[in-house]
Amino acid sequence: MSWDRIELDVAAAGEGLAARIEGLFAQQRATWPTLREGEAALQHLQVKRLEVDGASIVVQANPARRNSVHASVDAQSIAARACFLCPENMPPEERGVAFEDLLVLPNPYPILPMHCTVADRAHRQQRLAGRVGQLVRLAAAAGPELAVFYNGPRSGASAPDHLHFQACRAAGIPLLEELSGAAADSRGV
Fold this sequence. Notes:
189 residues; globular
């Protein structure tokens, strides 16, 4: 299989990346049961506020992501499995939209609504070196509605062998809500 089979043109010319991602999710929800099931599992998201010495943080867990979170990422395990971010190993229903040399794909095991995996079209190691500018451009193109982030190969990336970023709806990310509230408090809002 090739990226041509995966890439979906879901928007008219001139529409921004955020609108194309919205269109992608609408199409994928209609055609990909695994994505619908993954998004439905967000209803069982477990959220807890931890407080220590007057400081607090919100933590969350999605029980449906256990397999993804507990995936073995040691060198031997990675070498023994097919890369799920390469097009020949993707489910037949999976589609994505292009951004530069990346493809934005719905994550069927989301941590938050509209969780995307943004995969490089080339199979190369999960390293940010030389890609910071692209990460910034992706964040700008995704707009304020989506938060874009990178998790490194030693900090929980379940595909340390394939460069990817992630994005999800910014509203509802506990840390961003905390920061937004703190900024409003400091301005007296």
